[in-house]
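Quick review question:
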């Protein structure tokens, strides 16, 4: 590990010089690339230097103890040595995590898709609850949210809704939300007070640029139609809604939220790119299927990941056996406790895999 850290420190010094080089600053593409690398390396190098400083302190203190010292000074040295040993151990563990291969999608923005599953109207209402939860979480992080496509119901739910979230580290924090979210509660329409179980599917896709996924326009079938509201109510008198079919994969995306056909097409293409990218990623991950099994869930949309139990005010994440009795706070966007636990479990699984 230390040989690798020494090499990274050398690279860090090189990159630091580059970002202040007038020639590089003149080439904005190169400058941005070096700035990104500098930003990625900084936490690793800061932690490595902290570790080196603690090791040096420990060596110096050991040397001092070889000479006779008065009792009070010796006690002070031993206390400093103890603190240095703690720093070395802690920094070493943190460096192991910092050196883990980074998910290349972690810095990307996100496209989330929420679909009501088993449970009809009740599932659609819970889809709206999850949409609100993620919106409030995004707001707490100062991330920007934009609805791309929605299919609302008459009673305030969503059969399906797609939206983008733009912000630093959005994908790294939200990627573990993919899968089936189950809700157990008494529906307002249930007169006998029986608890119903419904399910909602969440997909989290990294938003990708055109250069990352090349789509041949000849592979697309684009249909335009008149937008409709809940229950077939006409909300637009022009053919502004857009449906795009990617013929090779069969992926279909519809957008009708904007009044402009052009804007609906742009939003549909954004979703389409992310879905095709996900298909490409799944194919790539099949080659390393064993590694995916060792991580926190597979991100499979059919995998039941979490249960929200209203009578007990309980939220359980089944992948890490985490149960919290704070359902209201979580549905109001307080997701960090769950997300932090999932990130930690994922890091632990990757560390275990790296040490095998």
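Suggested answer, residue by residue:
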């Amino acid at each position: 590990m230390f040989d690798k850290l020494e090499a990274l420190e050398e690279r860090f010094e090189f990159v630091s010089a580059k970002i202040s080089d007038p020639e590089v600053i003149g080439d904005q593409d190169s400058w941005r690339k070096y700035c990104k690398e500098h930003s990625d390396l900084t936490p690793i190098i800061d932690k490595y230097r902290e570790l080196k400083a603690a090791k040096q302190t420990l060596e110096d203190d050991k040397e001092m103890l070889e000479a006779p010292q008065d009792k009070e000074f010796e006690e002070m040295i031993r206390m400093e040595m103890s603190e240095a040993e703690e720093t070395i151990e802690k920094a070493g563990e943190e460096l192991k995590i910092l050196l883990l291969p980074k998910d290349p999608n972690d810095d990307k923005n996100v496209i989330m898709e929420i679909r009501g599953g088993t449970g009809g109207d009740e599932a659609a209402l819970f889809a709206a609850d999850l949409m609100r939860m993620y919106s409030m979480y995004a707001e707490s992080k100062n991330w920007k949210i934009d609805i791309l496509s929605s299919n609302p119901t008459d009673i305030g739910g969503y059969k399906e809704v797609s939206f983008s979230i733009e912000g630093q580290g959005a994908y790294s924090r939200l990627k573990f939300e993919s899968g089936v979210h189950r809700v157990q509660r008494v529906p307002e329409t249930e007169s006998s007070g029986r608890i119903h179980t419904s399910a909602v599917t969440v997909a989290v896709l990294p938003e990708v640029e055109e250069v990352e996924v090349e789509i041949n326009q000849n592979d697309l079938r684009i249909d335009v139609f008149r937008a409709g509201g809940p229950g077939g109510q006409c909300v637009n008198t022009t053919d502004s809604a857009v449906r795009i079919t990617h013929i090779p994969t069969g992926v279909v995306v519809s957008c009708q939220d904007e009044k402009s056909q052009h804007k609906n097409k742009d939003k549909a293409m954004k979703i389409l790119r992310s879905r095709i990218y996900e298909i490409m990623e799944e194919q790539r991950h099949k080659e390393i299927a064993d590694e995916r099994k060792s991580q926190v869930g597979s991100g499979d949309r059919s995998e039941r990941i979490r249960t929200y139990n209203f009578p007990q005010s309980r939220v359980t994440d089944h992948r890490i056996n985490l149960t919290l009795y704070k359902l209201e706070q979580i549905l109001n966007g307080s997701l960090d406790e769950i997300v932090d636990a999932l990130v930690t479990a994922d890091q632990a699984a990757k560390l275990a895999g790296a040490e095998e």
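Why it works: The radius of gyration is 26 Å. Residues 28-66 form the longest helix (39 residues).
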